[in-house]
Amino acid sequence: MLRTARHDREFVDGFRMRGLEVTRVEGFSDAVFGFALTLLVVSLDVPKNFDDLVASMRGFPAFALCFLLLTLIWNYHYKFCRRYGLDDGTTRFLTCVLLFLVLFYVYPLKFLFNLSVNELIFGVRGNAIDLKVSQISALLIIYGLGFAAVYLAIFFLYLHAWRLRDALDLNELERMETRFLLLRMSIFVGVGILAALLACFPRTLSYSGFCYIAIFPLMRILKRMHRRKRAPLLSQAAAR
Questions:
Q1: Which pLDDT belongs to residue 7?
Q2: Residue ranges of the domains in the chain?
Q3: Single pTM value for the model
């Protein structure tokens, strides 16, 4: 089922908002994302003394990064709902798959970031001392596959919208934006799979984390190229 926007002329960055009403699927999604964020909380216990407070504060940088990653995932789903206004069975199914993967992704995300960020900033390794090479490899594989799976679910959501491009009456600018998002999700999926593969072998284990760092310059280059192609179409849309 396709939802229609209340105001046909409501555009954001040249994209017509087709889904302005919040559905039960979106409400359920927001609740699950909110629950996932609570699982990232540094500690549910109130510090009893200053040392406990300092120990809790050390977890905030890792919490901030985890919070950022989850909100980015939420934002992709939010944009999908607003731009396409889809509320059919396929959309509900893919959304449920995404939410399931997000809940699975939370604990590996928190565990990995707590270890790496605390060691990088505070020089505190904590439980990392007890981790064997095989366990670190397994952790990075789980994280990489979880990362890839989450963005693969988002990829299929946007692919579903692309398949309905004629029914949604997407214009040229909207189709270009949809293709760009599909490309972006494909890169995220590829990076997660590559990082997991590198983590499988002791010789390449140390390179696994660098795959995620490579996302930033790559996305910056792609975004610049996309903006150049998009600018003429955006000007035409504004003129109308």
A1: 44
A2: 11-239
A3: 0.86
